[in-house]
Amino acid sequence: MERRRLHLILTLALIAVIFLALWWADTHLGEFPLRVARTGAIYVVAAVAYNLVNGITGQFSLGPNGFMALGGYTTALLILPLQQKQFVWFLEPLMWPFNSFSLPAYMFGLAVVLGGVVGALGALLVGIPSFRLRGDYLAIATFGFGEIIFVLANNLIPLTNGPLGMKGIPEYANVYWCFGAAVVATLVVSNIANSSYGRAMKAIRDDEIAAEAMGVNVFRTKMLSFVTSGFFGGVAGGLLVSLITTVSPTLFTFGMTFNLLIIIVLGGLGSITGSVFTGFGFALMSEVLRVVEAPINIGALHIPGVPGMRMVVFSVLLILLMIFYRRGLFGQFELSWDWVLSVLRVSRGVQEWKRERKTESS
Amino acid sequence: MTLETFIQQLMNGISLGSLYALIAIGYTMVYGILRLINFAHSDIFMVGAYFAFFLVAVFRLPWGASAILAVVLTALVGMIVDRAAYRPVRNAPRISALITAVGVSFFLENLGLVTVGARPKAFQRPDVMARVIPIGPAAVSGVSIWVPILSLALLALLLFIVYRTKVGMAMRSVSTDIETTRLMGVDVDRVISYTFAIGSALAAAGGIMWAYKYPQINPLMGIYPGWKAFTAAVVGGIGNITGAMLGGFLIGLVEIMTVAVLPSLSGYRDGIIFTLLLIFLLLRPTGILGEPLKEKV
Description:
The complex is a heterodimer. Chain A is mainly α. Chain A has helices at residues 2-28, 31-56, 64-79, 82-88, 108-132, 136-155, 157-160, 175-194, 196-206, 208-213, 218-244, 254-267, 272-288, 290-293, 309-324, 337-361; strands at 296-298, 301-303. Chain B is mainly α. In chain B, a hairpin with a 2-residue loop joins β2 (132-135) and β3 (138-141).
């Protein structure tokens, strides 16, 4: 019990430190670095949730873009100001009840959570076939789900405004909302992963039939993994549309899933720590790699900029990772307080030992 | 619906379905042998169409020669993809192979976007394909007649290769039991390489005929035909060549008839196909002709 209390205190202290750092960043950093940081935090929310299904439960899902789209549209419909709604739906009127209200800024949290709930409901729908489907078939089913969402978003004009999407969504997603969601998602997912449910998920990943024989309720466990993942996917989608202030079907195409796949594979399938680090890393890399897309002048040599080069680099990276560095940066390693404390203690011990040897030899 | 439009739509559905069947066979062959969904197959389809386009537009080859050369080149691309990306992960966990396949697919699409640009290109089609031919009361375009005929010829050729030649025998053997086949002294990697070549060649033929049918090509053109063909492979029973053909025609007819009977739903046609896929996966995941899955402990 003593250890758990220590860990709790350390976690709370870390959260306090993070928020002090955010407060400093919010008041001192410029708009651009903050934007990258917020994007990174949103990637962390989505990637950690995705990793719960793909890395920890070992079910190859290709549907997080669908969950994010559900959350994104829900949040957008809830927070878009009434005036803007009239302006956006000029061909066909927006359907009831969304045409009669709009949530104010202080209810943004509620809108995002509702987005998460809708994402979770979507996950429940996909989760039902996941009971019967294994491996590749699940990948197809989840991909199909993402595509169905895309088709619906394009065609349900009274609800989504079709291919045009919505403009002028208020930018409520500041650093506190984004990082708050990232912290909550990481804590919830890592707690699930370390609970008995998490062990059941890992058992399913390693051998589904053996897990079932050992009394794991495979359906319920997969469902828990899916629904949690869908919820945070929806939350990430809600934050994202508020960050970039627009939403359209093309925002949530398969490319979004691909980005998340890169993040969780690079960080290590099954490592939440890895997803957190590479989530931020990916947001940063996306900006850094804009260099490849910009025109380059080396002396007399002129290389014209090639837009889209980033995605080529990312896909090559993914293939190379799979061939040469399958475990990713962190493998299945998790950063834990026990590990941090033991490292600190060991290093202190080594230092003392060195000091003693020095005094002995001199 | 009048008889006239019905015949027209039926021909449309059959020609679309035969294209789906051609692509579906590539999926089903690779899946039957490697148990891998080759996500890149739909992009190989696009590569084939682009080869044909450039051979006509840049090298001024006649359309017949360019089509044949494009098929050969695309078969080579398929073999290269297998050698460069899939062979290194052959003994890796299934999920790694799947992720690699997704990576290859995304790589080909984005390489296409970077090199030839996102703007669709107008595909020059031969007069034979564009000409309108009267059949009874209906007027049908040449494409709707020639595409199914060519596709059926290619399918017959494929069935001959698979069931009457030594390579085909090796392929069937690898798909039944890869380890035992290896023990019998068959060079399994080479057989897999041939499989990719044949599958890619069929995809290329499909891509070129697709471009004859819808004469506009872009680097993302493969995605939807690819997924519908994949649906066809699953509906027919994945791993089963006859099933893929059946599934292809079924999906093509369902798609065209949905649009013809209920034009108001035409925006949802892709969604309807994917819903059909989900229903099939739930009710009969092994498809019409597939054998029930055995659980290996």
